[in-house]
Specification:
The structure holds two protein chains of two kinds.
Chain A (H helix, E strand, L loop, with lengths): L1 H13 L20 E7 L4 E7 L4 E7 L2 E6 L5 E7 L7 E7 L2 E8 L5 E6 L14 E6 L5 E7 L4 E7 L2 E5 L7 E5 L7 E7 L2 E8 L2 E5 L2
Parallel strand pairs in A: 4-12
Antiparallel strand pairs in A: 1-4, 1-6, 2-3, 2-5, 5-8, 6-7, 9-12, 9-14, 10-11, 10-13, 13-16, 14-15
Chain B lengths: L1 H25 L10 E10 L4 E14 L12 E4 L13 E4 L8 E8 L6 E6 L5 E5 L14 E5 L5 E5 L14 E14 L8 E8 L8 E11 L16 E6 L5 E6 L4 E7 L13 E6 L6 E4 L8 E3 L2 E4 L9 E5 L11 E6 L22 E7 L5 E2 L26 E6 L6 E6 L11 E3 L7 E7 L2 E8 L8 E10 L5 E4 L4 E4 L5 E8 L11 E9 L1 E2 L2 E2 L8 E7 L12 E5 L14 E6 L7 E8 L6 E8 L12 E5 L4 E8 L16 E2 L4 E4 L5 E2 L23 E2 L3 E4 L4
Parallel strand pairs in B: 1-10, 8-11, 12-18, 12-19, 20-27, 28-37, 38-47
Antiparallel strand pairs in B: 1-5, 2-3, 2-4, 2-6, 2-7, 6-9, 7-8, 10-11, 12-15, 13-14, 13-16, 16-17, 20-23, 21-22, 21-24, 24-25, 25-26, 26-27, 28-32, 29-30, 29-31, 29-33, 33-36, 34-35, 38-41, 39-40, 39-42, 42-43, 42-44, 45-46
Classes of the chains: A mainly beta, B mainly beta.
């Protein structure tokens, strides 16, 4: 089995330059593993949320489900979500670290609040992110994809399920991202917003790249 | 970062390798039996008394025909957390509250399994975080606070809870092509309260099935006859959703359960409210039939009772040429501002012989008479619909042509978003594949149809709320809500809570989006406002706030826009007095009984606006643990900051057996409100001598002198 593994590793290594990506995409050093903040519950439930780490904060709105990932995150981080409907639908917040649910809170109350934090206590919400760079990833619901999101100095690998909101905290230079859906994934629908304005849109699949202009 | 791509390719190569290995090894094992039956899992809770919430984090449920099966048995049939609702894969987890599932089962999920007799069921809790207990005041012990979360530690040391039945019928016998329900009763008993601050409760979780009280499930079954159609039977956007029947809570698009249509038949097992007297209280549902390149159908049902069955048959027309409805929803007050998270529903009337089977659902007054058969939401650019899964397209991507008998041959499409006026338009599906180009809509009653790029009206309420700023180094978040005056129907909340720090000058500014259309017969639309805080308790999330709630009743809302962009603002200034000021006060709780409660009884907690005299409704509590539970207590319970509140019993009308209601019933006050005062906790820490030595400041908040609220008080509530 070791021999098979070694052969496999060798053959894979030989493919290193055949990915089709070089230069501006894929040359950055690894960033640390990312924590994701999953907003789950009754599918379609609208919510508003504020996400903050020790340096920046973001206000967002959306519908369940949504995964939120912060690149270049500076812990501790906290997310507070408010259900935006007066029915009894479920809203859950989960902090996912690796394959573990680190924390979980749920509410079914009308316009109920939930709040979770990771990496310690965040006693105050930080000032709004500047620049506020976001990538909204729509794709087949609940299908897993991988992505590389990078500025000019660091690349972050994301393993998530669509829809996802990727927040890039204090990027160094321009940001680009490459998404890999795998066979039969369908299409990604990517929106990059900078300070609230859509600056790039890509509809492509099963792989897609989006760059900050 | 090139390692990333190396690993991707390695994974791509390993998967076929492993697959091949598995295929080769498959020959040495037993043939894999087809999963041709379905099992629906539900939970009934038996919580310990005096807890506000008893939360268990469930990862999955599995069943096995062999009562002695080990963890590695290949015969386990897994029923996972529903994707999307509780995550997916290894991270899947769903939090259930045993307090709210005491009377009616909480459905977990339905999954395909092999037909057979199953002797054992196991529930897998999160081994790292099996659950949370939130006790009422005075908390875990006289030295521990209440209304805060405590972790639980399982006394057995394992997060797997099981139940067996080795009798001939086992726990459950799902037959081939059949749906069977397995209701698991979860009982939590306290072995030991925390012995240290923020320590864990040691608990024992046991499971029984069937529950000791009657299984409160009813059956809805019937047929769907598909007549031959003349269309293509395909979709311009690709795949076609499977034909299914979905049960929705009456008058909403909230799905409770979905059943596929197989051989023209469907079966739904649904929670059904019982009561002290047969046949029970009854639960009301709508049915929506959609999918399969067929026309839509819908119905509104009479009340469903435990153990009873309702039969409902539908006829649809097949081979439709499916289209899509796409577009963008924006704010009519701010040019190009997308409305994120708006909800769109296609409405059709219930089928004959319902007396409303011919109503025009595009007339706003008729919308409550209709049933939602397809739902979509907007994304962060205001575009709809969000994509479906790889195998199941979005509901708005598979829309059959509207019946010619519909007004203008179009559907009624309702668009709602918190803080905005609902909008009902006429919509026709298109066959374009461009996300922006599918379908047309009419906002003028059908005179003109154009792309479904629609704008919602709104108005604003701006004001100030006095607040006692936190001490240096602390902060809190303030959330403001607007609800229709005199009701608990919350219409809007701030998109971003206001952060308050020690530098605050004593009040906060806020601006809320609110709807503008008056509710007939009123000429204006008044709102009640209340502001709560989102706090931390000694650095961890505080499930219940420790600051007072500020209320302002009967605020006249803004008028509608006179033109796009010309929107109105109403002002709401909370008086600068102690009754309207948000202050650090600490937790509190109140609990009591409800006489002669049924499953339509709730208790509303409200606070009086001392300036106007009006009460503003804040939250409500079910009357929990009702008959036919053993030793029913009919209890209500609230965690709320120490203050004086109103308690009002509210009653949802009991559905009339065999009678189909026209619209969803609404609850009405029952009797006179009473007041209850929860005393503030004694102060702890700081320069003030502390009567609660177990508490270290700050708790939720601190006072300027350094003291903080100590262990909270529980005020016995009146019997309502």
């Amino acid at each position: 089995m070791r021999a098979v593994g070694a052969a496999l590793a060798f053959s894979v290594a030989a493919c290193n330059n055949q990915t089709g990506f070089s230069g501006s995409v894929g040359n950055t050093p690894n960033g640390p593993p990312l924590t994701s903040y999953d907003i789950l519950g009754t599918v379609g439930t609208p919510f508003t949320a504020i996400v903050s780490n020790a340096r920046s904060s973001w206000v967002l709105q959306g519908n369940v489900p949504l995964s939120v990932v912060i690149c270049n995150n500076l812990l501790p981080a906290r997310i507070v979500a408010t259900k935006a409907t007066s029915d009894s639908s479920l809203l859950s917040l989960e902090i996912i670290n690796g394959f573990r649910v680190f924390d979980l809170e749920s509410t079914s109350a009308p316009f109920g609040n939930v709040s979770v934090q990771a990496g310690g206590t965040l006693s105050a919400i930080s000032s709004p992110a500047s620049p506020d760079l976001r990538i909204f990833v729509a794709g087949p619901l609940n299908s897993r994809y991988t992505a590389l999101v990078e500025d000019i100095t660091t690349g972050f690998v994301i393993d998530a399920r669509a829809p996802t909101l990727i927040l890039f905290d204090t990027p160094d230079g321009k940001v680009d991202a490459t998404f890999f859906g795998g066979q039969d994934y369908g299409s990604f629908n990517l929106n990059m917003t900078l300070n609230g304005a859509v600056v790039a849109t890509v509809v492509q699949g099963p792989n897609a790249t989006i760059r900050e202009p | 970062m090139k390692d990333f791509f190396v690993h991707r390719i390695a994974r791509a190569l390993i998967i076929p390798f492993v697959t091949l290995t598995c295929v080769l090894l498959a020959g040495v094992g037993p043939a894999r039996a087809a999963k041709n039956a379905s099992v629906e899992i539900g939970f009934v809770g038996v919580p310990p008394p005096n807890f506000q919430n008893v939360l268990l984090n469930v990862q999955s449920v599995r069943i096995n025909p062999n009562a002695n099966a080990g963890p590695g048995s290949g015969r386990w049939q897994n029923i996972p957390v529903p994707p999307g609702i509780g995550g997916a894969g290894q991270n899947a987890e769903l939090q259930i509250d045993l307090n709210t599932s005491q009377n009616v089962p909480q459905l977990f999920n339905t999954n395909a399994v092999q037909a057979g007799t199953y002797a054992v069921a196991e529930i897998l809790l999160d081994p790292n975080n099996p659950g949370t207990l939130i006790p009422n005041c005075p908390g875990a012990s006289p030295l521990s606070d209440g209304c805060i979360g405590y972790p639980i530690q399982l006394a057995t040391g394992t997060s797997v809870i099981s139940v067996q039945n080795t009798g001939p019928g086992g726990l459950i016998q799902p037959g081939k092509g059949k749906l069977a329900a397995l209701v698991l009763q979860l009982t939590v008993t306290i072995n030991q309260a925390p012995t240290t601050p923020f320590g864990a409760y040691v608990v024992t979780v046991t499971m029984t099935s069937p529950p000791t009280n009657p299984v409160e499930l009813g059956t809805v079954t019937g047929s769907v006859t598909v007549k031959a159609g003349s269309g293509s039977g395909s979709s311009s956007t690709g795949k076609v959703r499977k034909l299914a029947v979905t049960a929705e809570a009456i008058g909403t698009n909230t799905p409770i359960a979905t059943a596929p249509v197989k051989n023209g038949q469907f079966t739904l097992l649904l929670p059904a409210a019982s009561g002290p007297a047969p046949p029970g209280f009854g639960t009301l549902y709508d049915l929506a039939v959609a999918g399969g390149a067929d026309t839509y159908a819908a119905d509104r049902l009479p009340p469903l009772y435990p153990g009873q069955s309702i039969s409902d048959d539908f006829t649809v027309t097949g081979s439709q040429t499916l289209g899509n409805i796409t577009g963008t929803i924006t704010d009519n007050c701010v040019a190009t501002k997308p409305i994120i998270g708006a909800t769109l529903q296609l409405l059709i009337p219930p089928q004959a012989p319902n007396p409303n089977s011919a109503v025009d659902c595009s007339v706003p007054a008729n919308a409550p008479l209709c049933v939602a058969v397809a739902t979509a939401n907007t994304d962060n650019a205001g575009d709809f619909p969000l994509p479906g899964t790889i195998t199941t397209p979005a509901e708005f991507a598979n829309v059959p042509p509207a019946p010619k008998s519909n007004v203008n041959g179009a559907y009624a499409m309702e668009i709602t978003a918190p803080g905005y006026d609902p909008l009902i338009v006429q919509a026709k599906p298109g066959t374009g594949t461009n996300k922006q180009g599918g379908g047309t809509c009419s906002t003028d009653g059908g005179t003109t149809f154009s792309a479904c790029n629609l704008a919602l009206n709104t108005g604003y309420i701006s004001g100030t709320i006095p607040i006692e700023p936190p001490i240096s180094g602390q902060s809190t978040l303030v959330q403001v809500f607007a609800e229709d005056a005199g009701t608990d129907n919350i219409e809007s909340a701030l998109p971003m809570p206001v952060t308050v720090t020690s530098s605050n000058i004593g009040f906060i500014d806020f601006t809320l989006n609110v709807p503008t259309k008056p509710i007939p017969p009123a000429a204006v639309r008044p709102f009640d406002l209340f502001a709560t805080t989102i706090d931390l308790y000694q650095g961890v999330t505080d499930p219940y706030q420790g600051h007072t709630i500020a209320v302002l009743s009967d605020v006249t809302g803004p008028s509608g826009p006179s033109a796009p962009g010309a929107c109105s603002t109403a002002t709401a200034t909370f008086p600068l007095d102690p009754d309207h000021t948000i202050t650090c006060i600490g937790h509190g709780s109140t609990a009591g009984a409800v006489a002669l409660a049924n499953l339509g009884t709730t208790v509303v907690l409200s606070k009086q606006d001392t300036a106007s005299g009006g009460f503003v409704q804040i939250t409500n509590s079910l009357a929990q643990n009702q008959s036919p539970n053993s030793s029913p207590s009919n209890r209500y319970s609230f965690c709320a900051p120490a203050d004086t509140y109103g308690l009002q019993r509210v009653q949802l009308p009991m559905p009339i057996a065999s009678v189909v209601p026209s619209v969803a019933p609404t609850p009405e006050p029952d009797g006179s409100p009473t007041t209850v005062t929860i005393l503030p906790p004694p102060l702890a820490g700081g320069p003030t001598p502390t009567p609660t030595p177990g508490i270290k400041c700050p708790t939720t908040c601190s006072n300027p002198g350094g003291s903080c609220p100590g262990i909270c008080n529980n005020e016995p509530g009146p019997t309502l």
